Amino acid sequence: MLQIILTLAIFLILVIPMGKYMYHIATEQKTFADKVFDSVDRLIYKVCGIKGENMGWKTYALTLLTANAVMVFVGYLILRLQNFLFLNPNGIDGMEASLSFNTVISFMTNTNLQHYSGESGLAYVSQMCVIIFMMFTSAASGYAACMAFCRGLSGRKVGNFYRDMVRITTRILIPVSFIVALILVSQGTPQTLIGNLTVETVEGKLQDLAMGPVAALEAIKHLGTNGGGFFGANSATPFENPTVISNIVEMISMMILPGACVVTFGHMLAEKRRELKEARIEKKKIWMGRQGAVIFGAMAILFAVGLLICYNAEMTGNPIIREMGIDQSAGSMEGKEVRFGVAQSSLFTTVTTSFTTGTVNNMHDTLTPLGGMVPMLHMMLNCVFGGKGVGLMNMVMYVILAVFICGLMVGRTPEYLNKKIEGKEMKLVAIVILIHPLLILGFSGLAVSLQAGLDGITNPSFHGLSQVLYEYASSAANNGSGFEGLADNSVFWNVTTGLAMFFGRYIAIVAQLAIAGSLLAKKKVNETIGTLRTDNVTFMIILVFIVYIFAALTFFPALALGPIGEHLSLWM
Questions:
Q1: Are 222 and 250 in contact, with CB atoms under 8 Å apart?
Q2: Residue 504: domain span
């Protein structure tokens, strides 16, 4: 437990200053790094012809979609033609068409679902010019959409997509990734362009060791909440995650920016609601604003509940194995690395699916039923911090839903941030909230109805359905981890998960930007004694219950046929 507490404590210490720094970047206020990065940004603006004028939400959304589409096209060509390109010392062939489609959609949508093994399926040119490049740009796209959304809700202009992309990349993603990569190299992660090495083992046999620019990929993979590994075994392999120190660094890297986005949002609202001015007058230090604190607190409660369930389930172990007389005092170690144990594995599992990163340091397919249900459920919720920026946007949808429900209960027009919530906003919120379960349950139903889908299921009964649900929950939530017992590298799985990733990413972002634009155009209304307060502990608790109730109504029947049914079959 000390390892878990230490990791979370470091996160809480770092997330506040990072959030404040991101707030200054998003609102283009002065930062300590301006002297270095202003000249770099101006050069990029000049070369790319970026003027930086403010965009409406429609232009912003269209620009985001167009820029991402161009990168998808170029990335697809590189994957298909990698055998003809440079930096291919291992002579790897071009990637198959449906797998190339799945891979390029996966990395552009910040999902990083991998139906291939990186060390054998990708040349170095693809690892760097497609995988690492898209890890930066997809993370920056999510951040840009989130900051535009936050500015709209706080009463500011939406901003410029290109400026947001450039500023987050030059001022956060590149410098912090460089620092993280150096730490990983110090722990033993490779960073080289040489080909595979053939070494003699202690048993006198020969073994090929895959090399490559691993540390560079690992740094942005976690910082950008991407998750795709250089190797097929992801962060369970010592070359990606050598030590407990690297394990903690990777977890904090994937936690820091999603958490900081909530702090940034809180600061934006605090400035508009005069909390910052009041704090300065009273000589108090404001951490994230009351509105941000409520959302952060709700996310933290959801995360803590999931972590406790996962850790307890893995420590309890498997009753059938215990009946065989096998010692499980250290918990269920099946599929886990000895150097991490149950504590670091349970925390990593909960973090990677709560912050929708998708990297893994243990095999999720071997988790106990309830232990495996936690990451699955958190991807189904898709708002327990979530990916960089996107998790905050999804949680605000539940905030608006909670305000609407509470308003109906007392017979008042719902209001949020002094703006009326009306039919248009609720229709857009419904689209965002319903598209996610529609993709997960719809494609899961299709998979178990067609022979092409059934061919990928390698486990019978409850666990087989869990594999399917996890795959589409991971795709729709833009997470990327999997119950890797699934045989998913086929045309059916490549195409259907590709579609789930695409629609799960872009429909939600466009609808959320539309909500921000709609609220920005509305006039403020004055608070009255009957106005529902959304900045106190009571509303935080309401928000947590709204999220859990929606999850139960939507996903409980499917979970009952999957992990819950498997758990009952073991213990009853």
A1: yes
A2: 394-571
